[in-house]
Write a structure and sequence with these properties.
This protein is 36% helix and 13% strand. It is an alpha/beta fold. It folds into 2 domains: 122 residues, Aspartate Aminotransferase, domain 1; 232 residues, Type I PLP-dependent aspartate aminotransferase-like (Major domain) (Aspartate Aminotransferase, domain 2, 3-Layer(aba) Sandwich), CATH 3.40.640. A 7-stranded mixed β-sheet has the order 2-8-7-6-5-3-4, sandwiched between helices. Strands 9-10-12 form a 3-stranded antiparallel β-sheet. It has a two-stranded parallel sheet with strand order 1-11. Helix 5 links the parallel strand 3 and strand 4. Helix 1 crosses helix 9, helix 2 runs parallel beside helix 9 and helix 10 packs parallel to helix 12. The two termini are 32 Å apart. The structure holds pyridoxal-5'-phosphate. Pyridoxal-5'-phosphate binds next to helix 3.
Length: 392
């Protein structure tokens, strides 16, 4: 959360300030989750522990993602999983080979992380802080941040590493890699590990993009992480999981205790996965929200946006202004957005990322941006009609 504002804008109906559009939190939870919570009415309802290994949720995830429960490692969000599993995996891979140990001692690159540059910065940053080598493959804004998989292959020809790809990517919002592009690499580079972070994948229609999760049982060098924080609108509940080969799941389990996720997390996760109407509804909400932001932002001069398939939109000033200035001005009005630190010597000063909110929040955000940037253009004209929340 961010600190109180100095110059609070008056909030219209449907908007509560402060409004955090900087962390990509989702919007609606599945209706089944809300129905489930209504069943808790007694003071004795929470007296018992959950199941020790959260078997009901692991089984529900396994069924949804076409893997077996032994492939599922559950934790309180994918943030903690990345923090635990990546250093462990790198260490394991380095210690596996005397040649890698030597390289690690001499150049810190026994088993480097290989990742596109402009991505979820916590992973490369934490790896670099932990003394691991990070190889970044630059994405070109002039090409809408498209990822050239042949460059990744050329990099892998020079040596193995952990490939970390957020798909669709944060903060650019585009799908970086398709199944038919990655599968040949999974087969050709068995010594490398491929971690696909599908934190936002549920925003992409599975009829237009094959998710990676169901490939995990076939490829022991593939790991896929998922979260309930975004498309399921459950960031407050903290549920994330990793799909990986069973021996890696067992190794991670050994480092933590049982009863990790409470009954509420477990039951809400199962209810979310059972709600067949939720994801189609959320995809439509996100599509309308993106159009709303694109339409509003296109009326502001000196500003460019990039095509997103997720619940956020990346913007860039093309006239020398800085994302941090916009952030500071919006902060004073009670709205938080995201800006970026330099990565590997590359500055992202001109960029900012806006998380989609509810329709009224998006409209409020656009009005505030237009005002603080001194744009006379009305952002309200010809906005797409947002659909309302489903009532059941
Ligand atoms: C790409 C990506 N992965 C993982 C996370 C962590 O999410 P959570 O810990 O809520 O599952 C985030 C959060 O912003 C993210 O953007």
């Amino acid at each position: 959360m961010f600190s109180p504002m100095q110059d609070r804008a008056s909030a219209p109906v449907g908007v509560t300030l402060p409004l955090n559009l900087g962390l990509n939190d989702g919007t609606y939870a599945p209706q089944r989750c809300i129905d489930l919570l209504r069943r808790y009415t007694e003071r004795t309802d929470f007296r018992n522990y959950s199941s020790p290994d959260n078997a009901p949720l692991r089984e529900a995830i396994a069924a949804a993602d076409q893997v077996s429960p032994e492939h599922v490692f559950l934790h309180n969000g994918t943030g903690p999983i990345l923090k635990l599993a990546i250093p462990y995996l790198l260490k394991q891979r380095v210690l596996d080979s005397p040649r890698r140990v030597l390289r690690h001692v001499v150049k810190r690159d026994g088993f480097p992380i290989i990742t596109p540059r402009f991505t979820y910065s916590k992973v490369p940053k934490k790896a670099a802080e932990g003394g691991m080598h990070v190889d970044m493959l630059a994405l070109d804004p002039g090409d809408d941040f498209r990822f050239d998989v042949s460059r990744l292959e050329r990099r892998l020809e020079r040596g193995a590493g952990l490939v970390y790809i957020v798909n669709p990517n944060n903060p650019t919002g585009n799908v970086l890699v398709q199944r038919n592009e990655l599968v040949p690499l999974l087969e050709r580079y068995p010594e490398s590990r491929f971690w696909i972070d599908e934190a936002y994948v549920q925003y992409v229609d599975p009829n237009t993009h094959d998710y990676f999760a169901s490939l995990v049982p076939r490829y022991p060098n593939l790991l896929v992480s998922r979260t309930f924080s975004f498309a399921y609108g459950l960031a407050a509940v903290r549920i994330g999981y990793l799909l990986a080969k069973p021996s890696f799941v067992t190794d991670l389990e050994r480092q933590l205790t049982d009863y990790r996720l409470g009954t509420l997390q477990e039951e809400l996760g199962v209810a979310a996965l059972e709600d067949a109407e939720h994801l189609p509804f959320i995809r439509e909400q996100a599509r309308v929200g993106r159009e709303q932001l694109y339409a509003g932002l296109s009326r502001i001069p000196g500003l460019q946006t990039f095509p997103s398939q997720a619940n956020f939109v990346l913007g860039r000033f093309t006239d020398g202004r800085r994302g941090a200035e916009l952030k500071a001005k919006l902060h004073q009005r009670g709205v938080a957005i995201k800006v970026f630190e330099p990565a590997n010597g590359q500055s992202y000063d001109a960029y900012f990322r806006l998380t989609l909110g509810l329709p009224a929040e998006n409209e409020f955000l656009l009005a505030q941006i237009a005002e603080v940037l001194g744009s006379k253009a009305s952002v309200h004209a010809s906005l797409p009609r947002p659909t309302s929340a489903p009532s059941r």
